[in-house]
Amino acid sequence: MSNFVYQRPEDLYPVQQKEPVAGVCSACGAEELARYPVLSEGGWFMVVKCQVCLHSESREKWNRLGHIVLHTDTIPHHDDPPERTPR
Ligand SMILES: [Zn+2]
Predict the structure, then answer these.
(1) Is the pTM value of this prediction over 0.90?
(2) Taking the chain, what is the end-to-end CA distance rounded to the nearest angstrom?
(3) d(CA 23, CA 50)
(4) What residue ranges do the domains of the chain occupy?
(5) What are the pLDDT digits (tens) for 58-86?
(6) How far apart are the CA of 50 and the centre of ligand 1, in A?
């Protein structure tokens, strides 16, 4: 049994899709917001960023290993608050 939940990409060069988000950048005023995952020094985050100046409008913890989701990570921990239970 595999511990992988995710499907391996089939394209030779996978590209991160960015979901357009309605709204205006609070830093530069551009109507160019997009939601997508990023990897930074603190791990993976799901962000909404301005595509003109890269200001982050929101930044929330995402999957521990990014696009790679293990069955192990889907097991709820008893000390996790319900809203933080991994999906
Ligand atoms: Zn901006």
Answers:
(1) no
(2) 19
(3) 10
(4) 19-84
(5) 999 999 999 888 888 888 877 766 665 55
(6) 5
